[in-house]
Amino acid sequence: MDLFTQAKKREISEIRKIIVANLLTINSKDYDSETIKMLVKDYSIPLIKKRMSEGEMFVAKRNNKIIGVGRFNNGEIFDVFVVPEKQGEGIGKTIMLHLERIAIKKGFTKVFLPASKTAIKFYEKRGYKRVKDYKISDSSCWMFKELKE
């Protein structure tokens, strides 16, 4: 990664392209087309702007091009996406480590995140566990991780 910075409003369009590409190529393997359409709609430019104002959104860049995104808000991690063709290069892991360090700096000893069926194994490899009895849907669940400095 060349750079990991807080997202800027002028980058929203590029952030949305990454998220939508992820939903259409990666997540579509685990969700029906109606769910994918709903998720794409949930990541409209106005809703991404709203999410940016509700927490800290960060972008990972390589050669000045955004290759990943993640958001931290009050002990919760959201919206972790990596450009589909860059999956498996450790970008998602780097984003998660960065967001966890932010949580620690802010005094959190535990973080939570909503995990899609597509991402559950990715998070489990990073030490996240499912929150018992708190399922979002048949293909999503809340997860948590105890943080260590």
Write the SSE topology:
Elements: E1 3-6, H1 12-25, H2 33-42, H3 45-54, E2 56-62, E3 65-73, E4 76-82, H4 91-105, E5 110-116, H5 120-125, E6 129-137, E7 140-146
Provide key terms for this protein.
single chain; 149 residues; alpha+beta; Aminopeptidase; four-stranded antiparallel beta sheet; three-stranded antiparallel beta sheet; 5 helices; 37% helix; 34% strand
Describe the structure in your own words:
The longest helix is centred in the middle third of the chain and has 15 residues, at 91-105. The chain has helices at 12-25, 33-42, 45-54, 91-105, 120-125; strands at 3-6, 56-62, 65-73, 76-82, 110-116, 129-137, 140-146. The radius of gyration is 15 Å and the shape is globular. The chain has a single domain (3-146), classed as Gcn5-related N-acetyltransferase (GNAT) (Aminopeptidase), CATH 3.40.630.30. The chain is an alpha+beta fold. Strands 1-2-3-4 form a four-stranded antiparallel β-sheet, sandwiched between helices. A three-stranded antiparallel β-sheet has the order 5-7-6. It has five helices and seven strands, in the order E-H-H-H-E-E-E-H-E-H-E-E. Helices cover 37% and strands 34% of the residues.
